[in-house]
Amino acid sequence: MSANRAPLAFVYDRCASRSQRPLDMRLIGCHAYADRKGWVLAGRWLDLGDAALGSARPQLGELLAAMRAAAPGREVVCLVHNWSRLAHDVQDRIAMQQRIAQAGGYAATTFDESDQGVD
Question: Phi and psi dihedrals of 15, rounded to 5?
Fold first, then answer.
């Protein structure tokens, strides 16, 4: 797969705690996973502190705008360490996944989970 045809991975995470170590470890995992899959990293977006707790999520909004711009010519994926990086509550997570789908992409985790092709 050539680099210009490889999917673009938009790495997302959120962290409300003061400790950055778990966040750093999750990001390293996302980067390694994307590399193993042959995906091109589009960047990473992080909602921190209070922004990580609500549904507004400013950095996720920025990620979705970038994903929407890239989607017409490329496969785009929002890569998270695990589903709880989107939301702990299942209904909230599904809403976030729907926003990702509306931006033209799909969500995937470093545990080989994906909602690609799920309506």
Answer: -150, 115
Res. 3: pLDDT tops 70 = no
Other residues' Cβ atoms within 10 Å of the Cβ of residue 53? 11
Helices 90-102 and 58-70: crossing angle, nearest 10°?
30
| pLDDT beyond 60 at 42 | yes
Q: Please state, rounded to an integer, the average pLDDT across all residues of the chain.
A: 94
Identity of the residue numbered 52 = A
CA distance 36 to 105: 20
pLDDT digits (tens, 9 = 90+) for 99-118: 999 999 999 999 999 999 87
The owner of tokens 């990293």 is: 41
pLDDT above 70 (res 2)? no
CB atoms within 10 A of CB 36: 9
Q: 114: which DSSP letter? A: B
Q: Using alpha carbons, select from 71, 75, 48 the residue that is nearest to residue 60.
A: 48
Hey, which residues does 107 pair with through a beta bridge?
78
